[in-house]
User: Which sequence fits this backbone?
C-alpha cells in the first residue's frame, strides 16, 4: 500500500473499502523500491499492489505507469479505472480507460486542482483528466464547485472519513509527557508533516511570539518534511529559545499512539495555505481536541466557527498569534465543549460506512454509463502497385 501522507492514506482506505465490498482491487502506484520502469506485484491485505519503478524523466514515468496500468487492468479483467489525484493518476486513468474501452473516475484531492489550473505544464493533464473521465469526484465542496464551474462537469462530493473507534479521546499520559520533555506547560499541537503549504512560515513565528510571555510548548506530531528542514533549521538559528520549546514526535501509523499524543495537546492548529480534506484534522476532531484552522479547502466543510472549532481567514494569517492566544485563554470547559462537538460532528458525518456507500454508488454510476466513445479509425491503404 502507499505508505505516507494524506493522499497515500486516503488511497489505501478507498482501496480497502472497495475490497470489503467484494471488489477485486488492483492498485498501481509509483515506487522508489522497484527498478526504474519495472512493475512488481504483491498481495497486501487482500489488495493487489503493483509498484512501478520511477523513471528520471516525468514524461517517461507517465508512459511507464500507463503501460503497466493497462497491462494490469487487461489481465485482471477490470471493469473500471479509478485515478485518485487528477494530475498523474487521473490523467493516466483516463488514458488507460480509453485504450481499454472502460469507464473511468477521476478524484480531485486538493492541490491537484489548485496547482493544475495555474501551471502551464500541468493544465493540459488536468484538463484531459476532467474532460475525459466518465465521472469526477472531489473531496471538498470547494473543489467540486470550482471543477463544475471551470470545466462544466458534474462533480460528486465524497468526503474523507475517520474511524472514530480507533481515533478517540484518551487520558493524558504523564509518562509520555515526561518522555517528550513537555513539563507542566500548555501544549500547542500540529499533526502531519509540517511544510510550506501547511503554514510553516506562519506557525513557527507565531509560536516564537507567544512563548515570549507564556509557558508554552509546540508538539509537532509527524515532524518536518524533508524539503522544509532548511527553513526549520533557520527558525532554530533565529529563535533558539523558541526552538528549544519545540518537540518532535515522529510519525507512526498507529491510531492508539496518535490518539495518546493528541491527548497531550491543549489546542491543535492547522494554518494551511491550501488544503483538501486533511486526515490530520479529522483525527484531531475524533480525539476531541479543540481545533483552530485556516478557512481553506476542506477545513470549511469540517469546522463551524465557534461550534466545532475555530476558523481563521487566510487573509488574517498575520493575526495567528492572537487567534491562538484567544483559543488557549478560553475556559477549560469551553475548550472541552468544542472538542466534544468536533467529535460528534465527525462521528455523524464522516463515518467510514458513509464514505464506502458513497464510493459504491459512484462506481455503480460509472459502470452504468459505460466506457468512452471511441472515434472511428479510417484506414487509407492501397494495394502495392504491380511489378513491371
Assistant:
Amino acid at each position: 500500500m502507499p505508505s505516507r501522507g494524506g493522499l497515500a492514506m486516503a488511497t489505501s482506505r478507498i482501496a480497502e473499502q472497495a475490497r470489503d465490498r467484494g471488489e477485486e482491487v488492483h492498485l498501481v502506484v509509483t515506487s522508489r523500491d522497484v527498478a526504474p520502469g519495472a512493475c512488481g506485484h504483491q498481495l497486501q491485505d487482500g489488495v493487489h499492489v503493483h509498484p512501478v519503478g520511477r523513471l528520471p524523466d516525468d514524461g517517461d514515468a507517465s508512459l511507464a505507469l500507463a503501460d503497466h496500468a493497462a497491462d494490469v487492468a487487461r489481465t485482471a479483467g477490470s471493469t473500471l479505472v479509478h485515478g485518485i489525484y487528477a494530475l498523474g493518476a487521473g490523467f493516466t486513468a483516463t488514458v488507460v480507460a480509453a485504450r481499454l474501452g472502460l469507464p473511468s473516475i477521476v478524484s480531485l484531492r486538493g492541490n491537484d486542482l489548485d496547482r493544475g489550473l495555474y501551471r502551464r505544464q500541468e493544465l493540459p493533464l488536468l484538463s484531459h483528466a476532467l474532460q475525459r473521465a466518465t465521472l469526477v469526484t472531489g473531496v471538498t465542496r470547494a473543489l467540486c464547485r470550482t471543477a463544475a464551474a471551470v470545466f462544466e462537469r458534474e462533480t460528486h462530493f465524497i468526503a474523507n472519513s475517520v474511524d472514530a473507534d480507533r481515533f478517540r479521546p484518551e487520558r493524558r499520559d504523564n509518562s509520555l509527557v515526561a518522555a517528550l520533555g513537555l513539563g507542566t506547560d500548555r501544549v500547542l499541537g500540529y499533526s502531519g508533516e509540517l511544510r510550506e503549504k501547511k503554514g510553516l512560515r506562519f506557525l513557527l513565528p507565531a509560536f516564537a511570539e507567544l512563548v515570549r510571555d507564556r509557558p508554552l510548548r509546540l508538539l509537532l506530531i509527524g515532524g518536518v518534511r524533508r524539503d522544509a528542514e532548511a527553513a526549520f533549521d533557520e527558525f532554530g538559528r533565529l529563535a533558539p529559545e523558541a526552538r528549544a520549546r519545540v518537540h518532535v514526535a515522529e510519525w507512526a501509523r498507529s491510531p492508539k499512539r496518535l490518539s495518546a499524543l493528541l491527548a497531550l495537546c491543549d489546542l491543535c492548529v492547522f494554518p494551511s495555505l491550501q488544503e483538501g480534506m486533511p486526515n490530520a484534522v479529522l483525527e484531531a476532531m475524533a480525539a476531541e481536541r479543540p481545533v483552530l484552522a485556516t478557512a481553506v479547502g476542506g477545513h470549511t466543510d469540517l469546522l463551524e466557527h465557534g461550534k466545532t472549532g475555530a476558523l481563521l481567514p487566510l487573509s488574517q494569517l498575520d493575526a495567528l498569534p492572537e487567534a491562538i492566544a484567544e483559543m488557549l485563554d478560553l475556559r477549560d470547559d469551553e475548550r472541552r465543549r468544542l472538542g466534544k462537538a468536533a467529535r460528534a460532528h465527525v462521528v455523524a458525518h464522516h463515518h467510514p460506512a458513509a464514505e464506502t456507500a458513497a464510493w459504491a454508488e459512484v462506481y455503480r454510476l460509472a459502470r452504468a454509463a459505460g466506457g468512452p466513445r471511441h472515434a472511428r479509425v479510417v484506414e487509407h491503404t492501397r494495394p502495392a502497385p504491380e511489378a513491371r
